[in-house]
Amino acid sequence: MLGLPMDVTEIDREDFRNLLVEISKTWMPFGKFGPKDYPPRGVPIIDLPPEYLAWFSERGFPKGRLGELLQAVHEIKEVGMDMVFEPIRQVNGGRVSTRKRKPRTDF
Length: 107
Description:
Helix content: 40-55%
Largest sheet: none
Structural class: mainly alpha
Strand content: under 5%
Order of helices and strands: HHHH
Number of helices: 4
Distance between the termini: 51 Å
Radius of gyration: 15 Å
Number of strands: 0
Protein name: DUF3820 family protein
Oligomer: single chain
InterPro entries: QSregVF_b (IPR024530)
Organism: Rubritalea tangerina
């Protein structure tokens, strides 16, 4: 639960603000949304698809702070609060698309 001993509905406003700041500075460092496929830093964890976060939720989040932050993003998205990330996205230049483009075959 957000890496804190309380439920998301009970989190202190300042703690939540600090959590959002930390989340806003975190990019996926490995895997299909890491720097190899999304150079140079990978996908911001706020823009990871809910299905990808659900996969981690079922199989276990990574150890350490990254896992805690991914779990927090998953919980925030799961309760329909994705809009709290919009100010972060605006500062970062918008949402990062994780859709792979199909190569054009009509030329």
